[in-house]
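User: For my dataset I need records formatted as: sequence, then structure tokens, nothing else. Please produce one.
Assistant:
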Amino acid sequence: MFFLIFFFVNLLVVHTHQASDLATQTCDKLTSVKELCKTALGTSTATDMEGFVKASLAATTRVGGDVSEQIAQMLMSEASTAQESLTKCASIYKAAMDELKNSTAALNEKAYADVEVKLTEAMTTSKACEDGFKGASPLTEQNNKFRDYCNLTLDIIKTIKV
């Protein structure tokens, strides 16, 4: 019995170490988004690059969902003076979330070029949302974060396309 427990604990430790090595090695190659990669994906349990891309895409989708939620909250706020721009951003981010969903489907089919196209289309969302405000956007920080996560995922997908 002890041997079985030892075997499974050892297997788990080796698997976790391999995943950690993959995260470190991949993030170190991505100079423009290295720190974001380590922060967002340093604890990923992916043991291959495709799994790492899936983890990054999932993180990007979460960030996009967070922005969508924040927009919805701002729209419900009576104090919001940018209702029209926020409504446009809500529509734009809905389209971005659809693109991320399509990216996930394309990734599952190993259609890496399609993943890149769909991610790039989703990434333009943050700029379109930002440009829709007259004056300062209340979403600048969130739009930048979403763009950075899209860039991170694009950089990672490029490593497996080579």
